[in-house]
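INFO batch 0412 | record 1 of 1 | parsing
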Amino acid sequence: MVYFSLFAVCYSLFLTSVLAQFICVASSTIFGYVSWHWYKKSHPQQGVFILDSTQCRFENNTLKINGHISNKSRVYQSSVWLYINGFASSHWLIINASGVDELSFVRLKRLTLAARHEQAELK
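INFO prediction complete | emitting tokens
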């Protein structure tokens, strides 16, 4: 959000029309809000995550996701980005290492890599 705000202010300083400055600030605010909303949706603060082979389920008070772990999922040093294919839609779910205990995070990384490997073999 800060990035979009700084971009809007810096960019609008070089515009000569007040209307153009307003449009620049308004569009940056809208894009910032949409980005923040996507981030909050894909990076929940709490919830229950159940992983069984390639099937997974995540629930919290605002979000319920069921499906398989896709090939698009990524494993990084301190986070796992899960792309979950559900029956009707797909979702990104980002889990940080600081949010779970170390053993659970290592298990999640292993199962994600195994699920990606299985999906690649099926294709």
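INFO post-check: The chain is about 45% helix and 25% strand.
INFO record closed
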